[in-house]
Each structure stands twice: as C-alpha cells, then as structure tokens.
Amino acid sequence: MWWDQNLLALFRRNLWTTVTYWSVFFSFGLCIAFLGPTILDLRCLTHSSLKEITWVFFAQQFCILVGSTLGGAFKKSLKLCLFVLLTSTLIISVVFVIIPFCRHVVVLAVIMAVAGLSMGCIDTISNMQLVKIYKQDSAVFLQVLHFFVGFGALLSPLIVDPFLSDTNCIQSNYTLNGSTNLEHIRNSIVPHHPGNVSHYVLPLYGPALTNVGYAFWIMASINLPVPIAVFILMYKAGMVPGCEDRNGTLLSADELAMETHKGHQTSDSQITETQKVQSGNFNCCQNKTFWDAPCTYFAIHICSALILFMTDGIVGEYSGFVYSYAVEEPLLLAHKTAGYLPSVLWASVTLGRLISISVSYTMAPRTMLLINMIGVLGAFLFLILSQNSTAGLFIGTAFLGLFISSVFPSMLAYTENILNYKGCATTVLVTSAGIGEMVLQILVGTIIETKGSYSFLVCGVSLSTLAFTLYIVLVVLDNMHTRESKDTPWKTPEQGRDAEPYQR
Length: 504
Description:
Elements: H1 5-13, H2 15-32, H3 35-46, H4 50-53, H5 55-71, H6 78-98, H7 105-134, H8 138-160, H9 173-177, H10 182-188, H11 212-223, H12 225-236, H13 253-260, H14 268-278, H15 283-286, H16 295-326, H17 335-338, H18 340-362, H19 365-385, H20 390-404, H21 407-418, H22 424-451, H23 455-487
C-alpha cells in the first residue's frame, strides 16, 4: 500500500475537509496573479498614471501580510476558522464582480486591500489547519495545497488574456500614434517598484474602451464553488445556524490532533493535557513554559523565516525583473520572446509542485529542502555561466521554477515538525515569506537601476547562497534542539512522542 492504513483512514475521514482547504487555496492563486496582466486596462478604467496604479500592488501585498498575521489569531476555534474562510472566499468573488465598476484608483486600491486581507487569512488558516490534521504526515498535503495556488496563478492570466486591450484603452490622439510599446510596458511593470515605468507617459483623459470586465466576471463565476464548498463543510459539521444539532462528521482541531496520533498510542492523559494546551489563542506564546524554551526554539523560528524570506523573495524579484533583464544587453531579446519568461517560470513552479506531491510522501522534508536549495543555487550558477545564451536563460528559468516550487511547503512541514506542531511557526513563516516577496523586489530593483542588468543574476546567486547557508544552520539547530528538548524540563505535554526528529 502506497500510504499506511492509519493515514489513509484519516484522509478518507477528512476527505471533504482536505479538498475544501485545497480549493480555498485555488481562490488565493486566482486572485494573486491577475493584477500584472490587467494593470494597464485597470489604469484606463481609473484614468490614473502608471505610478499611481502601481500603488494597487502595494495595497494588496501589504494587506496580505496583515491578513497572514491576523489568520493566526483564529486558530482557537475551528468554527471561527471556517467562518473566516467562507467570508474570505466570498469577498474574493465579490471583488472580481465590482472591480470593473471602479472609476478611481483609490477605490480600486481599497478594494484590493480588502481582497489582500482575505487572501492573507486564507494563506495562514489553510496551511495551519492541514498541519493540525496530518501533523508529521502533512508534507504531501501541503504540496497539494501549494499546487492549487500555482494552478490558480497560472489560470487567471490565461482567462484575462483574450480580453486585454491591444491598444491604449483611453482613446486620444496620443493613443493613435503611440501604442506600439503597450506590450512592453505591460511586461515591464513590477509590483512595489514603479521606478522602472516612470519614464512612460500614457494618456489620462478620454473615453476608456476595454473588455477586461468580462474576464473578472468569469473568474468570479469560477471562484463561486469555493465558498459553497466551505459552506457545505460547515453544514456537515453542524456549524450553520439552525443545524447545530446535526451530527456533524467534521472533527474539531483538537479531535484532529488526537485522531492523527491514534496509531502512535497516545494515552488518555496525554490527550487531556494536549486539549488544554492547544485550546488557547497563540498558545505557543501564551503557555507559561514558552519562556523556559531553549534558545534553539527561537533560533529555529528566525532561521526558517529568513530562508522563506529569501526564497519567496527570489520568486518575486525573478518573475518581476527577468523580462527587463532579457530585453537589455547582452541578450537584447524581442519583447514578445522575453514576455514568455515569467510564464515559463510559473509553469515550471506549478509542474514542480505537482511532481513534489508524490516525492514528498517518500522523502522527508529535510531531504527535499536540501535538494531544493542545491537546485536553486545551481540554477542561478547555470544562468550566470550561460548569460549570453537565450536558450540558457529559458532552461535556467525552468529549472529555477522546478527547484524553488516546493521550498515553502517543505519548510513549513519541516519547521513544524522540529517545533512539535505548536502552531505559531505557520504564522511566522507565511508572514516572513510575504515580506520577502515585497522587500526584495524593491531592493533588487534598486540595485539593477544603479549597477546595471548584470546585477540581476548576481543578486540571485547571492540570495540563493545565503538561503543555502541558512538551511545548513537550520539543520544544525534541529540536531541541537532535539538534544535540548530531551535534556530540559521545557518539553510540554503535547510533545509526548514528538521529541524525536522527523521520520516516516
């Protein structure tokens, strides 16, 4: 049997729950990837400048960070988590519906900020709940979860592409004479770094003619089954008002933890203590034994967060600036050819996450992370060595996407396992990854402007080397933390069997 019987039985019992969390992450991916392709059409709708419209990116990303942090506050109650997911997925559909009616950039920014809060809550809660259900076996389910966000991010640009304007959608005399660089401008716009488009001037006045609204309404329809699935999950659990007496089949968070460890012979006394410890909000920070934790406990949080800060930042800055790098010296690629590079990256990320689903079951997260870190560093070294080759750029981009695709779910599974699934690691890692994606785009963009396009790959090598070094430090901390947990009285009741390092 490919899966052991205990895990298979738990998966069957929580099939609808698991699939619902996966579908919720599809909503996240669908909402995170449409801004880039549609930004010029949204500029026309709001009659704003390129510099003004880039603030919409900031509003969304900043609120994703806020939502990611807030999502950790809902861990106390499974009912509250599901209610937040239901509300968040509904908000995303509503946002898709009303975006075409926004006629001012400030209104659009507020709408995207609300969507960002919803996306942040989805990110933290979905990861956190799957870790609670499957604990030491959560890696494979997290890989599927992140495949769905990649699938949604790959699908939304395909949906909007037929509805994008081929010419400047604000009609004016300038439009008739200056629309040849439109595709180049669209590919050059980078979130959080408007400086690279500040020298482009597009008309602000005139009638706006665009059909992009149809794309948003299509995505709203595609997303609508997701909140319905969450509602059904709540109904099955008897969480819908008027259905409280229903015999729900959904396990609470504490019951999920007990069910996961039935095969590990957890005693009744341990279960009782676990319920007490896990019942509080941010219990890993509020528990009185938290302040007696060994220094490695805090160091592991910091080290894991920094690794995801680097790797998610690499994804953000590479997808944002690879086009600009390709159209400049030494490659000087045609705009249309260079425009395929971000798509190649995201397609390989999605493919890599699909491959990782089966690999993660037979391979421990620590081993997967080692392969990923070496692969990411190797991809950037290959890109530098083949910097004068167009084929080398495309091949290196594909390999980078394949190796970096499973870093986040593997790191989350590995870190939570080291820290005995206390739950706070999920919020810390999700927030740190989001900060890295935003900050490193600004940093790398500034370096490229001052030092030239070659520094784009140098930054990639530097960041990947630092991430690999931090991974080595994390492995050392893992070994130290295991010994300290055994030798100190800090070990809390829920750690009964979790003091051992990861083994499948």
